[in-house]
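Why do we care about 3D structure at all? Because function follows from shape, and shape follows, mostly, from sequence. That is the central idea of this module. The next example makes it concrete: a single protein chain, its amino acid sequence, and then its structure expressed as tokens.
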Amino acid sequence: MKRILLVFFTLSLFLIFISCDTPLTEYKPKNEDEKQIVDLLQKYTDARNNEDGIGWQATFHDDGKLIVGTGTEHTKDQIAKLAPEMVTTYGKLAITNPNIKINGDKAQVSMNTWLGKAKWEAVYNLVKEDGNWLILEARH
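And the structure:
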């Protein structure tokens, strides 16, 4: 019986550990590029959640696009009009567990995104242009 309790306790701790998400605000950047990327993702999140379409649009590269779960693509020009609809339809966005990989002037961030109470995996491709990181593709 003690062995079963020990196994149950260990499994419970493991499940609690793997279910914990690290919020974007608690991510510790390893270098200046990562810091800029985290700042960009925070601006993206804040603008979207505050229905600031122009601010949200500003986080995207001119060739940037948003691809939602249905496979629907939205260009940078369309993004500004989407903010209120996105919040109403999907809820507020929260980014957790970012995994940032930088290769020169390109970066990829895989992460969990919470839209309302639903958890999604997301991948953002970024490009550094004129010293600033911008989103080339946000895929939820």
